[in-house]
Amino acid sequence: MKKSILLLFSLFLTLQTGHSQKTKAKQLDAMIVQGMSDWQVPGLVTVVVKDGEVAFQKAYGVKNLESKAPVDEHTLFTMASTTKAIVCQALGILVDQGKLKWTDKVRDHLPYFKLSDPYITEEARVQDLLTHNLGINQADLLWALDSVSTRATLDRFALSEKGYPMRAGFDYNNVMYAVAGEVIQAVSGQHWTKFVTENIFKPVGMNDATAKSADIFKKGNYTTPYLNDMDDGIVQVDYNLSDQIGAAGMIWASLSDVTNYLQYLENDAIVGTDTILTKKTFDYLFKPHAFVTDASFYPTQQLTKPHWKTYGLGWFQHDYRGEKLDFHTGSLGGLIAICGIMRDKNTAVYVFANMDHAELRHAIMYKAMDLFAFDDNSRDWHQEIFDLYSKFKEQQKEYVEKMRADRAKDTQPTLELAQYEGEYTHPMLGKAVVKISETGLEVDFNNFLKTPTYHWQYNTFMSTKDNPYRAEIDFNFLIGSDGKVEAFEAFGEKFKKTN
Prior knowledge:
Oligomer: single chain
CATH superfamily of the largest domain: DD-peptidase/beta-lactamase superfamily
CATH architecture of the largest domain: 3-Layer(aba) Sandwich
Helix content: 25-40%
Number of strands: 22
Number of helices: 14
Shape: globular
Strand content: 15-25%
CATH topology of the largest domain: Beta-lactamase
CATH class of the largest domain: Alpha Beta
Structural class: alpha+beta
């Protein structure tokens, strides 16, 4: 009799748990549907893994607004900067193989490695490449304005200036992860893309994933990037295929892939009978390795109010409801991602979407944690985050409107347009060619990023949005004492005229 009662009680608990999970799934689904409508997200996928099992998994919307082709579990989205955690795991595999130490000097593996500060060059350790606190200023313009090889990019990066003493600050730095990719190749003998494919993708079951973004077109089932433009509404934007800094954020993966990936993470890097990383090394990835300053952290901290903020190896970290949350976002021209894991609560979540900076991703992550880790549905994360970012959007709109209102009307350039033409150079960022165009002047950076401009005021020209980033860029031309153009300023950098 006692045994029968225990069996009935066990069955009752199982049914109750199943009912609870279904209720939580409906609650999360309802928020996502509402959020996609408010954020105007074309397509999105979400997966939640709890105690090693898939608690929620769903694909929403379309991968292309024109074709209306639906998103499915094998549709590729960019992992963007959530790639970084995988690169750190790849280095961890080499640590476990005894081929690498986190404290190895970078130059021991890459003799050509050079930074603008000699001391930091010599003392930089492999781990320093991953923690954004080495002391060298970020230089994302290197890959935004050109498409040279990884080695050429790193050679130019040697001119990026020191921003603060070594390990005494925090400045998010994508290019350092490109260096980490080169370390993987130097130590393993394989390009980092091949190494992660063989050592992580295959054993984990990430069968759709590709570590080279340019390969998505061969795969066929991939999403289209979109942006909600202040003036033009939802517009398609160009794909960012900057594989020269691929280890910083160019892996593409599907819902199916990240479902298996989250289960692998929750199981401490064990897949079946295969141990991908030792427990010691896997735990080390999630230890806090650098403090994150307020200016470097996410605006959602206004809502989560963390007591501490750190960075592990490929993970932002903060306290949430008394527990440690490891997470990372990814943003890449019209596409977004977020991955979060609360290891002590055995709860993990991944989100992909094809709308630029749709911060619904944060709402989904925190809502999933509330529901599946804390059994709490009391907080309307979507509305809170939507309201928070709506304020930012309104501030941006006001800034643009003020800039347009403050424009000096009826001014003329000092010189004839032909005198602005020519070649301009920047020691780190390369070459820009300026030519007369239909609208005014055209600026072509490194035969890679080309944008037409129109006269704005005095000797300043403003780009149209007819460029891959749909960005309005102001070009301020400087006239020398001889009455000739000597340089232009853009992005806070000066390009000097050479002819």
